[in-house]
Amino acid sequence: MKILPILTLALSGLMSVNVSANAPSFPHLVTTGYGEVTATPDMAEFTVKVVESTMTAEQAKLLVDNVVSGFIGKLTDQGVSPDSINSSNLYLTPQYHYPKKGKPELVGYRASRTMTVKVEDLANLNQYLDIALSEGINQVDTIRLKVRDEVKYQQQARLEAIKDANSKARSLATGFEQELGGVWRIDYNMPSSQPVLMRSVSMDAKAESNSYQDSTLVIRDRVDVIYKLKD
């Protein structure tokens, strides 16, 4: 029986294995394995911002700094470690009015600061967000649900991806009446980001708090493999 020179499985349409540039000269088979595991989040991280616009730069800075100080103070009273709070520097920009004729007119200043808070116990997330609202924070940029032992879950997802790649390779080789040889090449790129819950909401009015206790994270991984086919 004539040996197939190349047998390629492309599930997503694009593969990180550069077959055309680095294809081996011997008969081979290429697969992509996907793996995922689910995890219940037990911690979180959220980023909030306070923005104020006033006539003077000094007043805008004072308003923003007061909100940041009050928020950090309340979090500290609740037992949040200073190491879990990251506050950015003040960002101050002039605001102009641009008439149809004439030069731009300075109408005030806009000041803003961003804070990121690490929540060690997910049960406290809503409480900390309520504190942000009460202290004058007017924007929530992101809420990231996380698991404490991310490495463990990522390793589990990676093993599932390896199993998937091997299973596909065996199935394809059998289907085409070929005998699968050893692994010739493995391409793996660690996922650049973890599953997150992203939100951007206005906090001008108090809204009913959402519960995150029943949320589930899906952690994914993938691996690209080139197998030899026996002659």
TrEMBL record:
InterPro entries documented for this protein: 26kDa_periplasmic_antigen (IPR052022), SIMPL/DUF541 (IPR007497)
Signal peptide positions (record): 1-21
Gene3D superfamilies, sorted: Protein of unknown function (DUF541), domain 1 (3.30.110.170), Protein of unknown function (DUF541), domain 2 (3.30.70.2970)
Swiss-Prot/TrEMBL keywords: Signal
Isomerase in keyword set: no
Superkingdom per UniProt: Bacteria
Signal recorded as keyword: yes
A biological-process GO annotation: DNA damage response
Protein name listed in UniProt: Oxidative stress defense protein
